[in-house]
Specification:
The protein is α+β, with helices and mostly antiparallel strands. The chain has one helix spanning 10-22, and strands at 2-7, 27-31, 42-47, 60-67, 70-76. It has a five-stranded antiparallel sheet, covered by helices on one side. It is globular, with a radius of gyration of 11 Å.
């Protein structure tokens, strides 16, 4: 499955990408898709069997699963 995680800070996005790569998941930093919002404008895109929420940094804004042309929110930190 394909996932997108958004963050409140660029550092949090970088930490999460490194944590996912440490778990053997290919992850990339990218601009946040227009359909989603983010405080810092940077997201992490990754593919995995599950969303690996335990690998997210503390400043994660939300995690979405890609479904067709849209996204399903799996986690939102307000």
């Amino acid at each position: 499955m394909n996932f997108v995680a958004t963050f409140y800070t660029h550092l949090s996005a970088l930490r999460t990408a490194r944590a996912l790569e440490g778990a053997g998941v290919q992850a990339e930093l990218a601009p946040v898709p227009r359909a989603l919002s983010s405080s810092c404008g940077t997201c992490v895109r990754y593919s995995a069997e599950d969303p690996l929420l335990e690998r997210m940094d503390a400043d994660t804004e939300a995690v979405y699963r890609r479904e067709g042309d849209g996204y399903v929110c799996l986690l939102r930190n307000e």
